[in-house]
Amino acid sequence: MTVSTHSNEMPAEQSWQNRWANMKVTLAPYGFLSPAIILFLIFNIFPLLFAAFMSFHLWKPSEGLGAMTFVGWENYYYAITDELIYKSLYNTIFMGVLSGVTMHLIAIPVAYILATYIKRFRNLFTGAFFMPFVTSTVAVALVFTNMYGENFGLFNSLLATFHEMPVIGSLLFFWVDPENPIRWLIDVAFIKPSIAGMQVWKFFGFQVVIYVSGYLTISSEIIEAAEVDGCTGFGKFWHIALPSIRPFIFFCITLNLIGALNMFEEPFVMLGKTGGTDSAGLTISMYMYLVGWVWEDFGTASAMSWFLFAFIGVVTGIYFLLFGKKGLGDS
Amino acid sequence: MNSSPVVRIWEKVGTAALYGSFGLASLITIFPFLWAAILSTRSREEIFTPGISLYISNHLADNYAELMNTSFPFWLNMFNSVKITALGVLFSLAFMSMAGYAFAVYRFKGKNLIFGIFLGSMMVPPVLSLIPFALIIQFLGLMDSHLAIWLPFTAVPFGIFLVRQYVVTTVPLDLMEAARMDGAGEFRIFWNIALPLMRPVLGTLAIIQFVFFWNSFIIPLIVLTSAEKQVVVQVLRSMQGLPNSPWGAVMLGTTISILPILIFYALASKQMIASLTSGAVKG
């Protein structure tokens, strides 16, 4: 697979041309890699080290580099005793799990129906489901902010309309009170589900695509064998399809985890930078932003980064230990 | 199949119901985009009237005028987004194709180490590098510059691996060795022989980076401070935060900002879906 630059026996007097040619081959990979390595050192490695240094100092960026004072472990002490950091971690995990689970409950059966029963227009349907995924989170969060509006928003208008329908209204929507519309983005009880709801809309299509391709990898022989054994409808889904997409589920859950930890734009746009009422929608990324840019405390923010780094490292380690082998086992 | 007519009718009904519900679900999924477009034609009073109706009103021009009247240079912000995306995609293709190629075809000292560090860095959640990243941008004096938005993201490990995998499986090494025998330089081999063969993976990479740069928000938010430098999504967010948010104008701006990507999606949805899920398919 790789280019061999040495011949087995080196001739005693190798011409300089040969040596030059060999040297070119030896140096070429470094040349090709240099932009990537330089960018990586400047924007990934150096910042991490700088942040480690920073985390032992007190510093307001607006006062210039000279205004840095050494404070030892104080920032770390502050970081691990800060209540808001745990609250934002809790919020992040809560919303991540809520949207992640809901997404899977929708995407797994929807993808199965698409893969097994829908032959025509399959691409059209997946195309529609996938569409929110390609668009800017900020842009769609703006649209959702409008739709979640208290008095004029689409969701409350829809609920009110259903409430007034003859039979359905009194059977299913009796709980709607048009006088007191739901305050989707203000009421603490609704903030997290509202944000998670938008995420489900934005990302379930991605999972549908993954799971459809997962189901399509199941060989028709296995399905035929199962049919001979008397497996039908739901049994085929439960005993054949679901176990065989396990690696895909592992992949999607991993992406869910990463996505949840990075959740920023949705709550930031829909709730404002402090995360709404009682910080109910404050995520860990938003909190970093708040500490660093709004409160201008880069030292504490850096210490928090390192604390989180350790925390996430441990969580990821446990996750891969528990599910990694199982999830990837069959692939 | 000899099934009775009754069963056949039920099957037809079932199929119709299936297609009907999937059609409805598709409509619901794309509805928010239509809703944004509809709202951008309505006046303030119409937007704030409760009730559901899908009429298209005639205040598009008013909303456009309002959009132009805010303190943000909207079209300049659009242009900034286009510029950043174009530069970002172009340099991503250059840097990542070179790096992925180097990992795929050469044997060199430190290869495993460099590869391992790249791989390891993928595990670090971007949230954590937010603060250090801001520090380094400040340190380099790149605050409020477009360079800081696109350059650091033109050599991401994910893309480098994508290229590497592709080159390993598709570019024949004997072809390159032959060219080397003929005296071609290393860069010429890359440029004339490898690069044309890498076209499919470069397409995938271009799509991934296009979506990434066009939609990026956090980095511009912490780097770009002046209204003339900001990107379009950033400005829309600020507009919505204004007192008495001008919803008609915001929805019009939002629709305009989504349009380029949606048009591209309409033309090449298959390639876009395949590219954006390419991390999963190889398993």
Count, helices of chain B: 15
Q: Extract low-pLDDT stretches of chain A.
A: 1-9
**Spans of at least 5 consecutive residues with low confidence of chain B:** none
Largest chain interface and its two residue counts? Answer: A-B, 102 and 100 residues
In words, what does this structure look like?
The complex is a heterodimer of chains A (331) and B (283). With 331 residues, chain A is mostly helical. Chain A folds into two domains: 55 residues, no CATH class; 204 residues, MetI-like fold. Chain A has 14 helices and two strands. A two-stranded antiparallel ribbon of chain A has the order 1-2. In chain A, helix 4 crosses helix 8 and helix 6 crosses helix 7. The radius of gyration of chain A is 27 Å and the shape is flat. Chain B contains 15 helices and no strands. Chain B folds into two domains: 58 residues; 173 residues, MetI-like (MetI-like fold). The mean pLDDT of chain B is 89. Chain B is flat and about 75 Å long. With 283 residues, chain B is mostly helical. The two termini of chain B are 38 Å apart. Classes of the chains: A mainly alpha (331), B mainly alpha (283). At the A-B interface, helix 1, helix 3, helix 4, helix 5 and helix 6 of A face helix 1, helix 4, helix 5, helix 6 and helix 9 of B.
Q: Key terms for this structure?
A:
heterodimer; A: mainly alpha; 2 domains; two-stranded antiparallel ribbon; 2 strands; disordered N terminus; B: 283 residues; mainly alpha; MetI-like fold
